[in-house]
Amino acid sequence: MINFKILGSLLLLLIVVGINAQSDTLKPILSTWVDQETRIDKEEWERKIASYESMGISEILVRTDHRDLVNVVQIAKKYNIAVHAWMWTLNRPNDTIAMQHPEWYAVNRAGKNSLEYRAYVDYYQWLSPFHPEAREYIKSNVKALCEIDGLASVHLDYVRYVDVILGADLQPKYNIIQDRDLPQYDYDYHPIARQQFKEIFGYDIIDKPYPELSTEWKQFRLNAITTLVNEIVALAHEQNKKVTAAVFPFPQMARRMVGQAWNDWNLDAAYPMLYHNFYRESINWIGFATAQNAADVDFPIHAGLFIPALMQVSELRKAIQVALENGADGISIFNAELLSEEQRFVLKEMFGQGG
Fold first, then answer.
1. Mean pLDDT of each 10-residue bin along the chain, 355 residues long
2. I need a labelling partner for 116 at 20 to 30 A (CA). Which of 51, 95, 126, 197 fits?
3. Is there a cis peptide before residue 335, judged by omega within 30 degrees of 0?
4. Alpha carbon distance 263, 247 (integer Å)
5. Distance of CA 102 to CAs 21, 114, 164, 171, 311, Å?
6. CB-based contacts of 107: which residues, under 8 Å, 6+ apart?
7. Alpha-carbon torsion 229, 231, 236, 242, what sign?
8. Domain chopping of the chain, boundaries
9. Residue 139 in 3-state DSSP?
10. In degrees rounded to 5, what are phi and psi of residue 154?
11. Closest by alpha carbon to 270, among 256, 284, 260?
12. Alpha carbon distance 179, 212 (integer Å)
């Protein structure tokens, strides 16, 4: 004889378990960038990673040396945290190998290369995506990272040109007004780029009265970055490694400001830096940019949030919500070291085990 009361209880239990399992499956990913230029010991990494895990972080995008990265992957594995190798791609400050080859560096419209003239800050030292040896050097760095067992992805950053237009909030800090593409910030007029362009179009772009206005020249430069990224993706996939990238807020904006057509890239995921305060925009702008990204690409989008601009917990909560509501697959913060106790509580609540 069937006991319907017991059967009903069992069915209810199965439904609750199923809902909870689905909830865990659908929980968005929380990531943080970790810039650890100075080496720290394993105990310190253990402390940091345990702290990340406690607030629901399940991915870390780490910039550190190769040997340290191997240790981080092994430690993070104990906490079920994925590690991505955060790699500065074309901007290579104080790169001792690259600096032996001044011809590798990008050139601006004023004729200065990025090793001689460092736009905005001294650490802006950009390689040219047109120089074949520079491209091979960048790819060799990727190959070395791909050899790290257990690495989740090679995470590309600074895979673009020098900012030809800074955000509205940044221009006053450098005492400049960028209402047009100024020669000293307009890259890459590398001799190889100009020659390749001339072979196609029959003229040297620098001879035009307003080369910066040429749509053909803009697209030609975009293509150089795109082909480099897609070559990196292909070689990483051959090693069963993914490629992700930190990118500018949405493709149309990225193309205009830094020559980055990231919706043409074959990425496994993108982490657009939606730092609304840089552009004097409201938190709602984060939702707008995320919706644009979700419409433009078919790979996952992890909305990058700038923690110092979201010190009010209500603002942090709203920024996360508008990003997720508009199609973000995850949230990435810059960075966990800057979090207040109140902000940590919000992340634990929204992404932690009890969230």
1. 45 39 64 90 94 97 94 96 98 98 98 96 98 98 97 98 96 94 97 98 98 98 98 98 98 98 98 98 98 98 98 97 98 96 95 72
2. 197
3. yes
4. 10
5. 56, 9, 22, 28, 43
6. 113, 114, 128, 187, 188, 189, 190, 191, 193
7. positive
8. 93-151+171-242
9. helix
10. -90, 120
11. 260
12. 13
> Any idea which residue has 């004023």 for tokens?
110
Q: What is the radius of gyration, based on Cα positions, of the chain? A: 23
Q: List the structure tokens of 99.
A: 């600096």
Distance between the two ends of the chain, CA-based, in angstroms?
A: 42
* CA-wise closest residue to 145 among 58, 70, 233: 70
- Please name every residue paired with 63 in a beta bridge, in sequence order, or none if there are none: 35
* 32: DSSP letter: E
Q: Please list the helix, strand and coil fractions of the chain in percent, rounded to the nearest 5, in that order.
A: 50, 15, 35
Lateral strand order in the sheet of 29-35: 269-272, 242-247, 153-157, 82-88, 59-63, 29-35, 330-334, 302-306
With tokens 């690259």, the residue in question is 98
